[in-house]
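TL;DR need C-alpha cells for one chain.
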Amino acid sequence: MMYDGDRAWDECPEMDDRELIRSFLELVDDMVKDIQHLKAETIRARYQLSKELDPGHIQFTTVDILSDLDMPRYDSLAYQEFARIYYDGGDPMAFKEFIDSMVGLTKGIDDGRY
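>> reply
TL;DR here they are.
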C-alpha cells in the first residue's frame, strides 16, 4: 500500500519515471477498454433478456437496459489525468462513438466495436 510521501516507482530502479508513467497509462487504457467491452456485454445480455421477458418491447426501455452501468470513479483525479495525457482531455467512456454504440446495443444493433 502507498502512503503519503511514498515513491512506489523507487521500487523499479531499472525504469526511468517516464517509462513507468507510460506503462501505467497503457495499463489504465487497457483496463478502460476491458470496462467498455464488459459494459457492451452487459447491455447485450440485458437486451436479450428484455426480448425474452417482454417480446413486444413495451416495458423495457433503453434507460432500463443502461441502468446502473455508470462508473463513478471517472471523476477521480487519476482518471482525469489519464484522460488528459492519453486522450488530450477526452473521456473514452464518453466519446460519441462509444455512447452511440452502447445506445445501438440497447436496440439490438451491434456494430461489433466493443
